[in-house]
Amino acid sequence: MRRTALVTGAGDGLGAAAARRLAAAAWDVVAVDTDEAGLAATALRSPNTHVRVCDVTDAKAVADVLAMTGPVHRVVHAAPIVSGDPALPALEQPPGEADEAMRTGFTAAVNVVRAALPGMLDQGAGELILCPPPGRAGRWTAASGAAAAAVLAYAGAVADEYAGRGVIVRRVLLPGLTLMTASEAPSKDEERSAIGRSSEGETPSGSGRSSEGARASEGGVPVRLVLDAIDRSLARAAGAVDVVPGGRPVPAALVRRIPAGPARRVLARMSGPR
Amino acid sequence: MTSTAEAHAIQGERVVLPVRIRDAAVASAMFAVPAAAAQAVIAYSGLDVAEPLPGRAICSLAFVRYADGDLGPYHEFAVAFLVRPPGTPPPSGPLGRLRGLSGVGAFIHWLPVNQEFTLEAGRTIWGFPKELADIPMDLAGRVKRCAVRFGGRTAVELSVRPGVPLPGGAGAPKVDAYSCLDGVTRRTPWTVSPSEVRSRPGGAQVVLGDHPVAEELRSLGLDRARALSSSTIGHLSMQFEGAEEVRG
Q1: Tally: H helices and E strands in chain B
Q2: How many helices (H) and strands (E) are present in chain A, helices listed first?
Q3: What is the architecture of the domain spanning A4-176+224-271?
Q4: CA–CA separation, A228 vs A244, rounded Å?
Q5: Domain ranges in chain B?
Q6: How far is A60 from chain B, CA to nearest CA, in Å?
Q7: For the domain B21-243, what is the CATH code?
Q8: pLDDT of A168-205, one tens digit each?
Q9: Best residue in B15, B16, B68, B196 for a mutation probing chain A (most A CBs within 10 Å)
Q10: Inter-chain residue contact B140 with A222, CB threshold 8 Å
Q11: Which carries the bigger pLDDT value, residue A202 or residue B186?
Q12: By Cβ atoms counted within 10 A, which residue in A152, A263, B1, B242 is the most buried?
């Protein structure tokens, strides 16, 4: 029996690599992105990859895709979080940058979960993987990092709330996403923080990257290693919700605490009663 | 007939040579098998197995995930034998055998894949013995595993345990891949650039089912043999030139 996967952000980088890997493993892949040319490249010579141009910040558009595909067995949400220039600190970012990051990060993830999770619950099976990468130059800004943290917290809460109903939830702490305390502020290590926007991995360790799109995984963890970490985690159904590619234990420990306690209540208030 | 401008029409797509694979991952194992039995298996090709040790040939099993390449994404399983380049005499003496190893090619005896596009491309462009199968694999865990199944029946399973990291080699080794489809034997120049290579002695386990190729592998003793070595390649890029016919 063929399984269906929905992959967002499939036009480039992590999402494209995830879509191709699933296609190689003979899944029916529904590849979603706003970048039509990128989608075409992902689906090239892959008869079991089906492309859909869709803006995942639009709840109805995502619901329409799911209405067409029917229940999917796996979701890899890898649509990038769009925000400002990663070279700039928070106060120098353009106005509205944080809103954009929350919309393309948090809102998009909520849209995808709300569209895909009901089908998984009906089937009593599914794998929901949330791993939106930073949009520009493969590096986080304060706002895109915060939006990613919101996605992680939401994923943690969803995992708790729907535990025991057959759906495996994974949230991926992408390289460089530290929920920073002052002592964790990036210094020399910052160059390691890029997550590639392409599946090529072999580049010399990063130096002097401009703000133009990060090819490959300049100085960062290659996307294939991120996908390996996700695969390993899914192989243990009862495993931890958190996936930490390349193993960065300290930030992982910090994130793990988010969904419990106050952050969860804040989220509950934000999303309000239905 | 090898030409860099060569192109083929496959399922409405134009595939230009050389075909490039930008990202693949591999696990493989090499076995020393009785040369006479191996020669019998590949006799249809007109090629001769290489004998690095007297009376022993080398059979290699491998599985590959093609994640990014000109033939689309797919899984593949390979059964190959090291062969002497056609027209070369068998080497003699230990030194000759060692020297003879430098020129050996890989004869691809069986190459199941799990996608239609690469099936047609492989058979049409290079005469690779591809056929369609279900090929589940796990390349993310410590132990890499793969199975080849036809309609739910397992033909072969291979698992490869982790080895120790090998230093990255500079340059891209050129190998000749040989194949024989419909009575035509072909040679395909093949360049491989591996990285993240791990290797070890032994470390492989083979389970054989009831497929004809599984029977052949059983006749070589592969289900009982200890592997000479097994290896994994985390990232592999490759290039395949056009094939040319080999006349015996």
Answers
A1: 4, 15
A2: 9, 7
A3: 3-Layer(aba) Sandwich (3.40)
A4: 11
A5: 21-243
A6: 31
A7: 2.40.400.10
A8: 999 998 877 755 444 444 443 343 344 444 434 333 33
A9: B68
A10: no
A11: B186
A12: A152
